[in-house]
Design goal:
The radius of gyration is 25 Å and the shape is globular. A hairpin with a 3-residue loop joins strand 1 and strand 2. Strands 1-2-4-3 form a 4-stranded antiparallel sheet. A two-stranded antiparallel ribbon has the order 5-6. The chain is α+β, with helices and mostly antiparallel strands and 460 residues long. It has helices at residues 3-13, 42-47, 69-81, 88-96, 101-113, 117-135, 143-157, 159-170, 175-185, 221-240, 243-306, 312-321, 331-351, 355-368, 374-384, 386-404, 428-449, 453-457; strands spanning 20-25, 29-34, 53-57, 60-64, 203-206, 209-212. The protein has 18 helices and 6 strands.
């Protein structure tokens, strides 16, 4: 295969070398940050035999080429343009500068929480194992169960430290100072946040204020805001502290100032704001019932198009860590919407006579079952519109079903079939039934709505 020729075919269709700010790639997609996306001839680009689809997401113009090929084409494109290859992270940061305020906020939260997802999933799976064992009567209060139970809640007990470390990297602060700040906010000298319901036992009187000696275990917003402030304090201090004293004074003053601000101001405000968001969602979930699931499930894919869905990780983590709630009731709804995209894309695979679309639609549909929807949304369903409408319908019906049956999850970030592992044993059948409803109704809707004649027969 002539990768240089493929790169040469792509280059003029994305506006030429002068229109490219950054070139990077992931496992299957070429990721370009363009000066002007209006300079792209998308119709001719998508018509290339080597291109399986293209779309704009997260401020990047992404071209689906497939595994293996993308590496070679990226190298050939770099050689022909004279640009340096950017890392995926560098490319994301450059692209983020071109996003709107809401999209930048969502991207920031995503960059903070995505690295934490594996440990939350691991602990969530352990919780699922314990819950299943208890449901089946296979577990009793033994030392082994106590140990595993301790393992399972570690990520949530020390969540502020994990968030602090990750947030500092995103805010260009010292991660270790941030971890120390997170540790201060859950220090054993502070009253455990989960016992606040029984009353606050002690207060400090500082600067004329009565400050509750309460920790921030199981919170998200307080530590996020505290680390953001800490990073700004650290940068300002590095500007004014002499280099000879930087190693001593800057960490000391940064930690002292940020810890005081966190405990006196940010912590109480962040807790109230986080609780308000979590409790409001819980009330909508409880009193909105199936209607809330119908609405959230139907609209979720529209939110995915904007990229704002990345901010939901923070909200879901807040639900899980909130002692009053302690479960993620949003993720099953998102899971239904994701799987529904797969059902709609599969119907396109059977309805279209365009061989190129069929090559994209089948793997895209299967990837939705694993929770990966970009290829199906941008490469298939949104391209033909009607399948996207059908997918929204499937997501709405599946969302209504899981909310009606009170299905929840014990972690974040895992949807589709893998999500079965983090669903409590008592809700597992309802979750699987929801997947079938979402996938099946989206498939049926996409099949019945069909494609326009010119779309179905294009490029036979």
């Amino acid at each position: 295969m002539n990768y240089q020729q493929i790169a040469a075919d792509i280059l003029p269709l994305v506006g030429g070398a002068d229109n490219i700010d950054s070139i990077a790639h992931c496992a299957t997609r070429l990721r370009l940050v363009l000066k002007d996306t209006q300079g792209v001839d998308k119709a001719r680009l998508d018509a290339l035999d080597s291109v399986k689809g293209s779309f704009v997401n997260g401020g990047q113009f992404q071209i689906v080429l497939g595994q293996g090929m993308v590496n070679h084409v990226c190298a050939a494109l770099i050689a022909s343009t004279g640009l340096n290859q950017a890392s995926t992270q560098e490319s994301k940061k450059l692209a983020a500068a071109r996003l709107g305020l809401a999209q930048r906020l969502a991207q920031t939260l995503s960059n903070i929480f995505v690295p934490i997802i594996p440990v939350i999933v691991a602990c969530g799976l352990l919780m699922g194992v314990i819950g299943t064992a208890k449901t089946l009567g296979l577990a009793s209060d033994t030392p082994w169960l106590q140990m595993v139970d301790m393992f399972s809640n570690t990520a949530f007990v020390f969540l502020p430290i994990l968030i602090a470390f990750s947030a500092a990297r995103e805010f260009n602060g010292n991660p270790f100072l941030a971890a120390a700040l997170g540790g201060i906010m859950i220090h054993p000298a502070l009253q455990n946040a989960w016992t606040v319901g029984s009353g606050i036992h002690e207060y400090w009187t500082l600067f004329g204020m009565h400050v509750a000696k309460v920790g921030y275990q199981g919170t998200v917003l307080p530590v996020l805001l505290a680390v953001w402030v800490q990073s700004h304090i650290e940068r300002q201090l590095r500007r004014i502290v002499p280099n000879s004293l930087d190693l001593i004074l800057t960490p000391f003053l940064t930690l002292m100032c940020s810890a005081l601000i966190a405990l006196l101001l940010i912590g109480p405000f962040g807790r109230m704001l986080g609780d308000a968001i979590s409790i409001s969602l819980m009330l909508i979930y409880q009193y909105g019932g199936a209607l809330a699931g119908l609405l959230f499930g139907g609209l979720y894919s529209l939110v995915v198009i904007t990229g704002v869905h990345h901010s939901f990780h923070a909200i879901e983590a807040g639900l899980l860590s909130n002692p009053v709630i302690g479960k993620n009731f949003l993720l099953p709804i998102w899971s239904m919407a994701n799987v529904a995209q797969g059902g709609a894309a599969l119907a396109v695979f059977f309805r279209t006579q365009d061989n190129k679309v069929r090559q994209i639609a089948l793997p895209a549909a299967l990837s939705c079952l694993l929770g990966i929807t970009e290829a199906a949304i941008f490469g298939v369903n949104l391209r033909f519109v009607r399948p996207f409408v059908a997918a929204a319908l499937g997501g709405a019906l599946g969302g209504a079903w899981v909310v009606f049956n009170q299905v929840s999850m014990s972690a974040i970030g895992v949807t589709g079939l893998p999500g079965i592992a983090i669903v409590p044993a008592g809700s597992m059948l309802f979750y699987i039934a929801g997947l079938l409803i979402a996938f099946g109704s989206a498939f049926a809707g996409s099949w019945l709505l069909g494609l326009k004649a010119q779309d179905a027969k294009r490029e036979q």
